[in-house]
Amino acid sequence: MKALLIVDVQNDFLPGGALAVNDGDQVIPVINALQDHFDLIVATQDWHPSDHGSFAANHPGRNVGEFIDLNGVQQILWSVHCVQESVGADFHTDLERDKWAAVFQKGTQKTVDSYSGFFDNNRQGDTGLSSFLKKEGATDLFVCGLATDYCVKFTVLDGMSEGFNTYLIADGTKAVNLEVGDYARSIKTMEQHGARIITSKDLIM
Predict the structure, then answer these.
(1) Per the database record, which ranges form the Isochorismatase-like domain (predicted)?
(2) Which of 32, 74, 75, 167 has the fewest Cβ atoms within 10 Å of its own Cβ atom?
């Protein structure tokens, strides 16, 4: 069975949000069009406590973009984003959600970040996404959403490590691009690990 996985299409990652991805809103019509072509659709949602360790604001004297050691993992510091129960953590209102089977929240523990929709960055916390997909009979996983160079990339890599035939829908994702070329490097990394890179046109005939 084919499953569509929508990663973090939330207000804070969209234009005007606290951690906006350039042109991030352009993925919404692509993702909406894709949903009619899948029987199983799930999504991930960044869902941070306000005192999360990845927020620069919680480390006096430190700035966004700096790295710290967070519970044994090198962690880049971000602006405050996707705080639990906030408008910024909500999915964009234009994103169709009627067919979603489940939403998997991540980044809920303040001492560890979670880019992947499957596991936290320490790989000690499991969101339950993999077991859900396997229980539903999913074999092929099609990933889209935000952002290519962080949460999407690590979700794709973990999807493959969990045994799914994993595809990235390239026109259904946008990158943060903290450094020029991050999008292209992320695509290359996913492809080198075995992900297949496609576009929505390959699915919508």
Answers:
(1) 3-202
(2) 74
* pLDDT, tens digit (0-9, with 9 covering 90-100), for 154-176: 999 999 999 999 999 999 999 98
Q: Tell the CATH topology of 2-48+81-202.
A: Rossmann fold (3.40.50)
Q: Considering only CA atoms, give the Rg of the chain.
A: 16
Residue 151 bears catalytic tag: yes
Q: What's the Cα-to-Cα distance from 187 to each of 13, 87, 144, 166, rounded to whole Å? A: 19, 30, 12, 13
* CA–CA distance, 145 with 147 (Å, rounded to integer): 6
DSSP helix/strand/coil, 64: coil
> Across-strand partners of 32?
none
Catalytic residue among 151, 153, 158, 174: 151
205 versus 42: which is more confidently predicted? Answer: 42
* Catalytic residue chosen out of the listed positions 12, 82, 106, 120: 106
What is the amino acid identity at position 125? G
pLDDT bin (cut points 50, 70, 90) of residue 205 is: low
Residue pLDDT, tens place only, 112-124: 999 999 999 988 8
Whether 106 is catalytic is: yes
CB 52 within 8 A of CB 107: yes
Question: What are the structural domain ranges in the chain?
Answer: 2-48+81-202
pTM of the model: 0.96
For the record, the structure tokens of 162 come out as: 């969990």
User: How long is the chain?
Assistant: 205
